[in-house]
Amino acid sequence: MAGDFFVFKCAGAAADLGDSLERVEALARHANESCRSMGVALGACSLPQTGMPNFEIGPDDMEIGMGIHGEPGIRRGPLASADTVTDLLLDPVVADLGLAAGDRVAVLVNGLGATTQLELFVICSAACAGRSTPSASRSMPVGSGNTPPRWRWHGASVTLLRVDDDLTRLLDHPCYTPALRVGSALEPRSNARRTPRQARAVVQAAAINRAGLKAGGAVTPAVFLAMMRAVAAAIRADKD
Q1: Which domains occur in the chain, in start order?
Q2: E strands within the chain?
Q3: Could you list the mean pLDDT of each consecutive 10-residue stretch along the chain, which spans 240 residues?
Q4: N or C: which end of the chain has fewer CB within 10 A?
């Protein structure tokens, strides 16, 4: 669901702070392993090119645990109150993370494209109230919104990130994007390390020994290249 949001935020902050590529990757993996999400579908999603729902669900039903593309969830039942739904989402997340009293978590409530901000605030309030989280846990609410939304899909997901000092520092690092703004607008740092972007980078890329690359499997480089060209052609043909 929306767990990638935390992974990208932490990796981007580490890179902006000048950490090595290896350190950025390690922190991204750490964030990924510390993160769990669960979603609820209150309606069906659709693809823009068809306008047809990907699945069917009744107006008084909800589906718990559906996938980000509308994959089937773990169970379907009658629509419940926001507090009850939030507990249904948080219980398996808390259990799978193995949260204990005293653990700190960052909370993200994400809409799926058609859920209003007011509805997301209600879920966010219930999630941060700690109804399902350990009583001594301190939550760090990050916020709510349609961060990676689907196409006109009514529903929401709740994501918890178990944080330590490293992840807290990365979450608090300023950023300025359409989906998230932390702190003020970033100012260029005079002491920042910059990677020279010159023509020699192109020469280095051309010098890769492609004969040493792994080319086995069903999707060979030639097949993959043909797939990407077909995708590009389809996008150009249907761009309107």
Answers
A1: 3-182 (3.30.1180.20), 199-237 (no CATH)
A2: 35-41, 61-64, 75-78, 104-111, 138-145, 155-162, 175-176, 181-182
A3: 89 94 96 93 76 77 80 83 89 90 87 81 82 45 56 81 93 85 68 58 60 83 93 88
A4: C
